[in-house]
Amino acid sequence: KKNFTLAVVPGDGIGPEVTTEALKVLDAVVAQYGVTFERTEYDLGARRWHATGETLPDAELEEIRKHDAILLGAVGDPSVPSGVLERGLLLKLRFTLDHYVNLRPSKIYPSVGSPLANPGEVDFVVVREGTEGPYVGNGGALRVGTPAEIATEVSVNTAYGVERVVRDAFARAMARPRKKLTLVHKNNVLVHAGHLWKRTVDKVAADFPEIAVDYLHVDAATIFLVTDPARFDVIVTDNLFGDIITDLAAAISGGIGLAASGNINPDHSAPSMFEPVHGSAPDIAGQQKADPTAAILSASLLCDHLGLTEAAAAIEVAVTADIAERTGTVRSTAEIGDAITKRAIG
Ligand code: NAD
Ligand code: IPM
Ligand code: MN
């Protein structure tokens, strides 16, 4: 297949700035292989919500669903109550399109700075569950604003949901040289969900005898992410733990400006969605200060998912070369995008 359709949701804050650069690189790279992306841009996010009160109307979601893939910048804005866009737009996309594998690779590129003195060879991927856990909205609040207020946020974990993401993580570990999988949870306290996850990993492990399986409580995992990140290969974890440890993973491996992600529907029953791990960064939005590398690497993951492996590799090679020559000189968002584009097609 040579002609793909792409739904683009630039979103809020730095989202539009970094998305522009990701599309610049993507278009330039795929053109070399005779591949095109026919783009439809969706005006979703804070502007739209203020104008119409809408976050993501069902009809628009069904339009988005018809595309081969989705590229998203970031959503969330200080002018909108926290949670409205995050839940009503971003999580609605992830849940409805069944993005049960939230893939978040971390590696330290040659010559990139890490805040760690001796990070070692860091190259791991977090397989974060994307459709369940405490994110499902299974909760409520009573007597809000009174001294007797009660708020609950009940994590939902199903045998079906846990097993499918665990199987995906094992399969990814099989395709990697070190063949190691670490389950991260908190089964010493969250005994209901935690034991389901642990039992599921133990059961699936029997089908993957070559994989070395490890378990860490999430608190201890944060220790090792800082003291010995090279020990990790594939990490499989629940939605909330995965959210938290992937910001930490980004911070130790070159910064949040480099961290890419894919919200994958491995069954291809709906389009997968690619976005940086970072958010809309309101503190630097509109100033051309954002690093677009995470968005550009997300476009590489997008190519990979669609089977455009050469294009995916070309983007990664160009980014790696750009990172290797970063000198500390401040470049604008567009300058970084231009430099990577030039390398990718040069
Ligand atoms: P954030 O990731 O937006 O920002 C955290 C810090 O990292 C800020 O100092 C920011 O300037 C910096 N940063 C982020 N991306 C950067 C980049 N590309 N280059 C340089 N610096 C960068 O997280 P936050 O401040 O917790 O959240 C801001 C908003 O974004 C909130 O509304 C939140 O809900 C939303 N959010 C959205 C997504 C998403 O759309 N996937 C992800 C995380 C947060
Ligand atoms: C991320 C973000 C989202 C998440 C929010 C904005 C819903 O933090 O993509 O990491 O928690 O998944
Ligand atoms: Mn996050």
TrEMBL record:
<dbReference type="GO" id="GO:0009098">
    <property type="term" value="P:L-leucine biosynthetic process"/>
</dbReference>
<protein>
    <recommendedName>
        <fullName>3-isopropylmalate dehydrogenase</fullName>
        <ecNumber>1.1.1.85</ecNumber>
    </recommendedName>
</protein>
<keyword id="KW-0963">Cytoplasm</keyword>
<dbReference type="GO" id="GO:0005737">
    <property type="term" value="C:cytoplasm"/>
</dbReference>
<dbReference type="GO" id="GO:0000287">
    <property type="term" value="F:magnesium ion binding"/>
</dbReference>
<feature type="binding site">
    <location>
        <position position="219"/>
    </location>
    <ligand>
        <name>substrate</name>
    </ligand>
</feature>
<feature type="binding site">
    <location>
        <position position="94"/>
    </location>
    <ligand>
        <name>substrate</name>
    </ligand>
</feature>
<comment type="pathway">
    <text>Amino-acid biosynthesis; L-leucine biosynthesis; L-leucine from 3-methyl-2-oxobutanoate: step 3/4.</text>
</comment>
<keyword id="KW-0028">Amino-acid biosynthesis</keyword>
<keyword id="KW-0520">NAD</keyword>
<dbReference type="InterPro" id="IPR019818">
    <property type="entry name" value="IsoCit/isopropylmalate_DH_CS"/>
</dbReference>
<dbReference type="InterPro" id="IPR023698">
    <property type="entry name" value="LeuB_actb"/>
</dbReference>
<feature type="binding site">
    <location>
        <position position="247"/>
    </location>
    <ligand>
        <name>Mg(2+)</name>
    </ligand>
</feature>
<feature type="site" description="Important for catalysis">
    <location>
        <position position="186"/>
    </location>
</feature>
<keyword id="KW-0560">Oxidoreductase</keyword>
<keyword id="KW-0464">Manganese</keyword>
<feature type="binding site">
    <location>
        <position position="104"/>
    </location>
    <ligand>
        <name>substrate</name>
    </ligand>
</feature>
<feature type="site" description="Important for catalysis">
    <location>
        <position position="135"/>
    </location>
</feature>
<keyword id="KW-0100">Branched-chain amino acid biosynthesis</keyword>
<feature type="binding site">
    <location>
        <position position="243"/>
    </location>
    <ligand>
        <name>Mg(2+)</name>
    </ligand>
</feature>
<dbReference type="Pfam" id="PF00180">
    <property type="entry name" value="Iso_dh"/>
</dbReference>
<feature type="binding site">
    <location>
        <position position="219"/>
    </location>
    <ligand>
        <name>Mg(2+)</name>
    </ligand>
</feature>
<keyword id="KW-0460">Magnesium</keyword>
<dbReference type="GO" id="GO:0051287">
    <property type="term" value="F:NAD binding"/>
</dbReference>
<comment type="subunit">
    <text>Homodimer.</text>
</comment>
<feature type="domain" description="Isopropylmalate dehydrogenase-like">
    <location>
        <begin position="5"/>
        <end position="340"/>
    </location>
</feature>
<dbReference type="InterPro" id="IPR024084">
    <property type="entry name" value="IsoPropMal-DH-like_dom"/>
</dbReference>
<dbReference type="GO" id="GO:0003862">
    <property type="term" value="F:3-isopropylmalate dehydrogenase activity"/>
</dbReference>
<feature type="binding site">
    <location>
        <position position="128"/>
    </location>
    <ligand>
        <name>substrate</name>
    </ligand>
</feature>
<comment type="similarity">
    <text>Belongs to the isocitrate and isopropylmalate dehydrogenases family. LeuB type 2 subfamily.</text>
</comment>
<keyword id="KW-0479">Metal-binding</keyword>
<keyword id="KW-0432">Leucine biosynthesis</keyword>
<comment type="function">
    <text>Catalyzes the oxidation of 3-carboxy-2-hydroxy-4-methylpentanoate (3-isopropylmalate) to 3-carboxy-4-methyl-2-oxopentanoate. The product decarboxylates to 4-methyl-2 oxopentanoate.</text>
</comment>
<dbReference type="InterPro" id="IPR050501">
    <property type="entry name" value="ICDH/IPMDH"/>
</dbReference>
<feature type="binding site">
    <location>
        <begin position="279"/>
        <end position="291"/>
    </location>
    <ligand>
        <name>NAD(+)</name>
    </ligand>
</feature>
